Automatic annotation (TrEMBL):
GO terms, biological process: translation
Transmembrane regions: none
Subunit structure: Component of the mitochondrial ribosome large subunit (39S) which comprises a 16S rRNA and about 50 distinct proteins.
Protein name per Swiss-Prot or TrEMBL: Large ribosomal subunit protein uL10m
Family note: Belongs to the universal ribosomal protein uL10 family.
Gene3D superfamilies assigned: 3.30.70.1730
Lineage: Eukaryota, Metazoa, Ecdysozoa, Arthropoda, Hexapoda
């Protein structure tokens, strides 16, 4: 009985698998239509795509742009407020185009400028649009189509140090700047660096005004001095003819 149970009931048999080739040749180009029930199911679940309009990509891009402009990012607002503060409290601002540069070289340039109390900032186009919109700095927005770094300094006299550092870093290309609220091109910015400081110019201007005033006083007193010299010479001629000057001597003013 035990042998019957072991051999007949508890013994497991492995199924025999037999692979058969399809009896007909499969036509890939014109396949056989599916069964009726399957065809109904396929027809129900067939996806339906709406035909897009001719200018749909343009409309979708414009709609996405409007939605992006309506979204207000609080972090960008804070950074834009900081950037505007830098513009309003800096007497010297330089715009530098950043070409391909190693971060090590960029850090060296920032350290060299920091030693002269000059700061370097990099802002995106969206932040700059919020920072300078409806201000007197709005004309600088086209400069931020590519990666642009901004150099800020509260002292105008640091312009020579800025140009010296930029000369040693060819990857940073000067595009222009703002000096004391006036937008300057690259050539005007470099010409401004060759000018003397305001103290020297004031001293030169005061010297010119003083010289002009002295010349005017001399011209006004010229005829009076000439008359006094002639009268003095005439008086000496009457008293000491041998020691006096000739009566007809002229005195140059």
């Amino acid at each position: 009985m035990s042998n019957l149970i072991i051999n007949g009931l508890l013994q497991s048999r492995n199924p025999l698998l037999t692979f058969r080739r399809f009896r007909g040749k499969i036509n890939i180009q014109r396949p056989r239509p599916p069964h009726y029930e399957r065809a109904r199911v396929l027809e129900v679940i067939k996806p339906y795509y709406k035909k897009p309009e001719f200018n749909a990509p343009c409309i979708d891009a414009e709609r996405a742009k409007e939605m992006k402009s309506k979204l207000d990012n609080p972090y960008e607002t804070i950074i834009a407020r900081e950037a505007r503060n830098w513009f309003e409290h800096s007497n010297l601002v330089a715009f530098v185009h950043v070409n391909s540069i190693k971060q090590e070289d960029m850090f060296k340039a920032q350290v060299a400028l920091h030693r002269h109390n000059v700061s370097v900032k990099v802002y995106g186009k969206s932040i700059m649009r919020k920072a300078v919109a409806d201000t007197r700095f709005e004309a600088i927005l086209p400069l931020f189509e590519a990666k642009t770094a901004i150099i800020f300094s509260p002292e105008v006299q640091k312009i020579k140090q800025v140009l010296s550092v930029l000369k040693k870093t060819p990857q940073l290309v000067l595009m222009g700047g703002i000096v004391e609220g006036r937008l300057l091109s690259k050539n005007e910015f470099m010409a401004y660096a060759t000018m003397p400081d305001i103290t020297t110019v004031r001293a030169q201007f005061a010297a010119v005004l003083d010289s002009v005033g002295g010349k005017i006083v001399g011209d006004l007193q010229c005829h009076q001095s000439q008359l006094v010299n002639l009268l003095d010479a005439y008086a000496k001629t009457d008293s000491k003819p041998s020691e006096a000057s000739p009566a007809g001597e002229k005195v140059n003013c």
